[in-house]
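[Q] Does anyone have a clean structure-token version of this?
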Amino acid sequence: MIEVKISADELDIVSCLAISKDLESGGIASFIGSVRNHSKGKAVVRLDFECYEAMAIKEMRKIAEAAISKYAVRNIVIQHRVGTLYPGEVAVIIVVNDGHRDSVFDACRFIIDSLKQTVPIWKKEIFENGEEWVSAHP
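[A] Here you go.
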């Protein structure tokens, strides 16, 4: 099962865990990415996330399919937030289920690393004295 979502609404780990729930899976790994209050030695006031939604959803699904193929995991939920987020707010949630811990940890890391490399989601950091677009694909 694959569930991918881009949303301007607050993300909720409990609902992501419920979506991915599978009585045949004993291992669950998650990654929650939240907004930090600093970057490059500067205080972050907020982040603005933008994306090309149709392409982002397609790419997120492709990443999930690759993770299932590569790590033989069962269920994947990927949700990413867009819009204005403040320090402490959740920007991304990834949940992976399977029968074994190694596969879910490996798949979770693969997904977040791939997401940052290929999904067309852009982040602007707004500081107290300026702003800067952050390269989504270093």
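[Q] Thanks! Anything notable?
[A] The radius of gyration is 15 Å.
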